[in-house]
Amino acid sequence: MLRFTTVVSALALSAAAAMAQDIKVGVSPGEHGEIMEEVAKVAEPMGLNIQIIEFSDYVVPNQALADGDLEANSFQHRPYLENQMNDRGFDLVEIGTTITTPMGIYSDKIEDLAELPDGGRVGIPNDPTNGGRALLLLQDLGLIALAEGTGLVPTPLDVSENDKNLRFLELDAAQLPRSLADTDISIINTNYALAAGLSPRNDTIAMEEADSPYVNIIVVRQGDQDEDWAKKLVDAYHSDEVKAFIDEKYDGAVLTSW
Question: Across-strand partners of 217?
């Protein structure tokens, strides 16, 4: 009986493996890729094999998804997706939330924003959404004011009050950790901060509040949101195992949305 049960179990596992679906999911470096590796472990027994494709910038993953080179991506927040869809005409849709990674202000020169000098150099991301996010953080901290009606995507041209005459350096988001030698402060996304060995908990001068609108999301092409693999992907991401991994590994620098 034991031998028969073992054979049946092996056959069942073999059949499940044969029926497993392969998908490609695009991520950015750092926590998005690391978390997706854990998601892949949870998804495999569910019959979903996830191949993780890492991209070094924020532009290509949506283009690759729209072109059919990926089944899904997991790297961006809602305002960025909306901006990309408006600018590039992508027909993409959110299927689930993932994490929030508060943007932080870092410096190699000062330890308090009160020390920021007149004419200080401020590094911010050069993509519209994250650059706007950085400016909104500066406004929340009382360092600048932005013109009314700029919404979530202001640019340095929308700065209406700048008492310290701050100078804004718009740089590729991945390069901002390296900019600290040349700036008084740089405003850096958590994934790139972590990849550079910076601690959002210990090395920031200031951070976004946890209730910002910048929750990250899983995105697929319009029409794929009801596919079985899409549901399994979200279920695997929202598992207790993945939540425990995030809470332990990132020690509050990355917050789960579920």
Answer: 76, 97
The pTM of this model reads: 0.72
Please classify residue 86 by burial: count the beta carbons closer than 10 Å to its beta carbon, then call 0-12 exposed, 13-18 middle and 19+ buried: exposed
Note down pLDDT in tens along the chain; length 258 residues. Answer: 445 444 444 544 444 555 789 999 999 999 999 999 999 999 999 999 999 999 998 889 999 999 999 999 999 999 899 989 999 999 999 999 999 988 999 999 999 999 999 999 999 999 988 999 999 999 999 999 999 998 988 999 999 999 999 999 999 999 999 999 999 999 999 889 988 999 988 999 999 986 778 899 999 999 999 999 999 999 999 999 999 999 999 987 898 999
Residue with tokens 């009160």: 114
186 is in which domain, residue-wise? 110-207
Any idea what the CATH number is for the domain that residue 139 is in? 3.40.190.10
Of 25, 59, 79, 75, residue with least CA distance to 214: 79
Q: Are residues 118 and 95 in the same domain?
A: no
Q: Which amino acid is at 86?
A: N
